[in-house]
Amino acid sequence: MTHSEDNGATRLALNDTTANPAPLGLLGFGMTTVLLNLHNAGMFPLDSMILSMGIFYGGLGQIIVGVMEWKKNNTFGATAFTSYGLFWLTLVALIILPKTGLIQAPDNSAMTAYLAMWGLFTGVLFLGTLKMNRALQVVFGSLTVLFFLLAAGDVTGNQIIKIFAGYEGILCGLSAIYAGLAQVINEVYGKAIAPLGIVQAEHL
After folding, report:
1. pLDDT in tens, the chain (204 residues)
2. What is the DSSP letter of 105?
3. DSSP 5
4. Of 23, 21, 50, 18, whose CA–CA distance to 135 is shortest?
5. Residues 6+ apart with CB under 8 A from 172
6. Model-wide pTM > 0.85
7. What Cα–Cα distance (Å) separates residue 202 from each residue in 36, 57, 105?
8. Cα separation of 53 and 31, whole Å?
9. Angle of helix 61-71 relative to helix 75-96, nearest 10 degrees?
């Protein structure tokens, strides 16, 4: 907290001493993404483990982080984390709602439009990361590729593309995990133990 005098009036400025919420959001995104794409790569079926991660850690967790970023006046972080948190919730809904019998499941063309729209959104955010660190550029760049690969898999029905997308998604998720844990470790040690690349902004 600082005080300043201006023409006899006292101005009060508050210093933000809250923690950086970005690592939590990156980990929620990254770990959920890895698990889903292990399924996409054919390693295990889509089950309650993945859906639970999508609802809570990838979904609600990132929404909470988005609100925290909003409080820290970080428009990019608030937009990204809140949006991807809601992405996970919509994805879970797309899987679960048809099983209730109340609404039909989306066909391949609908899923193609869904994934392509998220790919477009992510591609624009990737442009924003060009002013940030290299680690975030890898996360958003690989995520853009992932969305379009998944869309291509749906529009063509080619299982090979979907499996390839799964492996690419694993790498994307691991890059987000690295970006999140690197920030935690660097803050704990007070120096750059895990490199993030040239940093132009304080955090996501």
Report:
1. 555 555 556 676 667 789 999 999 999 999 999 999 999 999 999 999 999 999 999 999 999 999 999 999 999 999 999 999 999 999 999 999 999 999 999 999 999 999 999 999 999 999 999 999 999 999 999 999 999 999 999 999 999 999 999 999 999 999 999 999 999 999 999 999 999 997 654 556
2. P
3. E
4. 23
5. 33, 37, 139, 142, 143, 145, 146
6. yes
7. 30, 24, 42
8. 8
9. 160
